[in-house]
C-alpha cells in the first residue's frame, strides 16, 4: 500500500503519523515520555519504513508501560512462531516448486505444470478413474497405460525422464536401467526411503520396508536368519498343509458328482498365503491372524483411496471420519498382534516351548532379550515388524499366484508343460518338498515371466539424501525418484521386440541373461534392499502350483474381465474366476479300474475330449478298431456264458513291454464252468 494511503487510514482512526524519526522525537519531547509512544515495527518494511505512529491513549487511565510490554512480548512470540511457518509454507508451496522446476528445466527435464498444494494429484486421479473403466483384450499384456495412465501420458509428452508433483513433493520418473542400478545398489545411504504417509505406515508397519540407516541394518541383521534355506526347507511342510486345507474347502463346496468348479482364485490365494505366513512366520493359525488380515484389507482400501489426495502434515491427528476408521483398524491390528505375541511368551514361560521358537516371531522375541544393542529389538519394533510381514508376506505372493494361474489358463500349452514337469518330478500325488521344487526349471521360468509382466510391485521409490550426480543429471536433495518396474519390464530395447509377449523361455539361461541388461529384472528389487522374502515367496508359489497342477486343469471362466489394477499392489480389478476341472484329464481315480467313467461315451470320459488314445486318433487312427472290438466282445461273451473266471495263485502281476503290453509270466486263469439251469 502506498505510504500516503497508510497515513490517511491511521489519521481517520485518530492516530498521528510521523514521516521521520526526527519529527517523532520532536513531538515526544513536547508531550510524551519516550516509553509512552508506540510504533509498529512491522510497518517498517521497504516501502514505508519511515512511518511512525503515535497512539492516542490516555496515559493516566492505563498502566501503559505494562500493557505495552505484555502485548509486545505476546506479539513478538506470536510472530516468532508464525513467521517461520509462513516462510516454510511459502517455501514448500511456491518457492521450492518454482526453483526445482527451473533447475530441472536447465537440465532438459520438464513435466506437467505444478499447481499450488495439489501438484499433479488431480490429473493423476482423473486419469486413473478413466483408465479403470477400460477392459483389456485377454491376450494383451500391455498393462502400463491402464495401471499407471498418468506415467504413460507424461512419458509420451515429456520423454523418458520427467518431473511431476505428488502434491508438493517433487518426483522424478527414471526408467534408465543403468541409472536405476546405481540408485538401488548404492550402499552409502545416498538414496533413502522417502517419508511415507501415516496411513500407509499403519497398514504396512513401520518395519524393515520403511526403515533406514542403522535401524535398517540392525533389523535386517536380526531378521535375515529367519529366511535361510534351512528354515525355508522346514516351512515347505507347513505350506503343503495349508494348501491341502484349501483343497478340502474346495471339495466341500463342490456338489456330488460335479467335475467342474468356478473359484475366485485371487480371493482363495489371499486366504491361502495369509494362512501360510501366519503359520510359517508367526506360528499362529489363520484364525488367529484373521483379525490382522481383515483389518489390513480394510486399511488397504482406505490407503488406495487416499494416496491420490493432498497430504497436509498434522491432519492425521484430526478426528475426520476417515481418520477415525483408520485409528480403529490400527487399534485392532495392534491388539491382535499383541495377543499372538503374548501366546508365544506364555508358551515359553510355561515351559511348553524350550525357547521362543525358531520362526520369524521367535527370532524377534529372542532378540528383545539380547544384551547387545545392535542385536536388540524393542517390543514396539517387533509389533511394527509383525505388521510388515503380515502384509508384505502374503499380499505379494497371493498376487503372483493369481497372475500365474491366469497366464497358465490362457496358455494351455505351458500349463501342460508344467504339469508334465510336475508329474516327472513329484508324480501324480506325491507331496512336493523343497528338493522337488528346486528341480522345477520350467515352473521357475513361468514364475519369472509372470513376475516380469505382472509383478505385484509396480514402482519403487527413493529419495535423494543429498544433492546427487546421477549420470548426466543433478538430483537435488529431497527429490523423490520413481523407478517404474512395470514399464522397465516391457522395455523393448532391453527385453527384445517380443517384450509384451508371454515367453517364459527367455529365462532359460537364468534371470541375469534373460535381457540385454544383467539387472533388468526388478520384481524383487536389487542391491542391499532386495526383498528379504523372495526365496520364501518362490518356494511357496512352487509348492502351491505343483499341488494344483497335480489335481486340477485350469481354465478361465467366461466371466473373467482382464483388468489389472493398481491397488497398492497389482491386482485383478474384477477378480480372477477360474474353472477347475477335477484332476488332470482322468480325475482323482485315474489309477482305479472304473468302467463307469465311459458311461457317456469315450469323448466325455475325461476332461479332455481326446484323452483316450488306445486306438490313436486323427487320420492314422487304427483301421481295425471296430474289428478288434467286435472280436473281443464276441469272444468275451462266449467265455462269460460258459465260465466264471478266477485268477490263478500262480499269476504274477508283471505287465511288460514285448512290443505290445503283455503279461511277462503269462496269465494263468482258473475257468470254472457255469451250470445254467
Ligand atoms: C512375489 C512375492 C514378492 C515380491 C514380488 C516382492 C517384492 C519386493 C520388492 C520389489 C521389494 C523392494 C521394495 C523397495 O525397496 O522399495 C521388497 C522388499 C521387501 N519384501 Fe518382498 N516381495 C515378495 C514377497 C515377500 C515376502 C513373502 C515377504 C516376507 C515373508 C517379503 C518381505 C519383504 C520385506 C520385509 C522387504 C523390505 C526389505 C528391506 O528393505 O530390507 N516380500 N519386496
Automatic annotation (TrEMBL):
It is a single-pass membrane protein. It is found in: Membrane. InterPro entries: Cyt_P450, Cyt_P450_CS, Cyt_P450_E_grp-I, Cyt_P450_sf, Cytochrome_P450_Monooxygen. The keyword S-adenosyl-L-methionine does not apply. The chain crosses the membrane at residues 73-95. Its main location: membrane. This is Cytochrome P450. It comes from Brassica napus. The lineage of its organism: Eukaryota, Viridiplantae, Streptophyta, Embryophyta, Tracheophyta.
